[in-house]
Write a structure and sequence with these properties.
Blueprint lengths: L1 H30 L6 H18 L3 H30 L8 H24 L13 E4 L2 E4 H23 L1 H11 L1 H6 L4 H26 L6 H16 L4 H21 L7 H13 L9
Helix pairs in contact: 1-5, 1-8, 1-9, 1-10, 2-3, 2-4, 2-8, 2-9, 3-4, 3-8, 5-6, 5-8, 6-8, 9-10, 9-11
């Protein structure tokens, strides 16, 4: 029975990680930014959604929408206050901008975490499920909300695939990830494309944050862990590879679930971090990375 429970729960959390990691991979692939404030953005969405759902007449669904908007707004703040000023700065050498962006987003993420702890306290919270009730999956009693989260994550990932591969805006983002200079020479404005990518990322991070709050619960101490999990997934899958990130999300998700069930929930991020170190040493390009 424990094995089946691990399979069911692992699939749901892995789907959630996949959704969050796709956005993380998208902004790196298109704009070259590794956003170390990722966990903080998810945290804002989760805590704002939880508060609105519990303290206002909007209820769970209204709280979910407000939480997603809060995640999107935080992503915009990350881009316009931290990332873009560094990328456009003439005082920073071009070859040093990447490390400045890493440092800037890391510090911004710590600021978000500290601010959320001040506003909401550092106690973990759980948002009411979007859909109450329990069903049997492979003989395991599973909350309907958990099944809904897994299905919804893959629906959104599927819609994102259609957007990227079947629309002119998506093809522009693909072109920007391959040859941004060539795209500029064709008359396209890279800043508009980057803004579009950060909008998509903000929505994905917001959705992942509120779904996480209604599934496992979340607290301010989780911000670093969420960033570490996303970073592990992206590096394991191959920087810039969406397909690799989807596969890696399930590797990391099941590793964490196995650790939580068989060892201790407090140690759940450790195996993924160990795997990350091994990948960096043995296959730095990741599973499906180009280099």
């Amino acid at each position: 029975m424990t094995t089946l429970q691990i399979l069911v729960d692992g699939f749901a959390i892995s789907s959630l990680y996949a959704l969050a990691a796709v956005g993380f991979t998208l902004i790196f692939g298109v704009s070259g930014v590794l956003n170390l404030a990722h966990g903080g953005i998810m945290l804002v969405a989760a805590l704002v959604g939880w508060w609105v759902a519990g303290e206002t007449p909007l209820g769970t669904y209204g709280g979910t929408l407000v939480g997603i908007l809060a995640g999107l707004l935080t992503a915009y703040l990350t881009y316009f206050l931290v990332v873009r000023p560094i990328q456009r700065s003439k005082a920073i050498a071009q070859e040093e901008k990447e490390i400045f962006v890493l440092t800037g987003t890391l510090l911004w993420g710590i600021m978000i975490q500290t601010g959320m702890a001040y506003v909401f306290s550092d106690n973990p919270v759980t948002m009411r499920p979007l859909i109450p009730g329990v069903i049997a999956v492979m003989g395991v009693r599973t909350p309907i909300n958990e099944v809904m989260i897994a299905v919804l994550c893959w629906v959104i990932i599927g819609l994102l695939w259609v957007l990227i591969n079947r629309t002119p805006a998506g093809k522009q983002m693909l072109a920007a990830s391959i040859n941004p200079r060539g795209l500029t020479l064709l008359g396209f404005e890279l800043s508009q494309i980057y803004f579009r990518v950060w909008t998509i990322y903000g929505v994905l991070a917001g959705v992942a944050g509120v779904l996480l709050a209604s599934f496992l619960g979340v607290g301010t101490a989780n911000a670093g862990q969420l960033t570490a999990s996303a970073f592990s997934i992206v590096v394991l899958g191959g920087l810039g590879s969406v397909s690799g990130s989807l596969i890696a999300a399930y590797v990391v998700g099941y590793l964490e679930t196995l650790t939580a069930y068989l060892i201790a929930p407090t140690l759940r991020p450790i195996p993924a971090l160990i795997l990350l170190v091994l990948v960096v040493y043995l296959r730095p390009q990741g599973l499906l990375g180009r280099r």
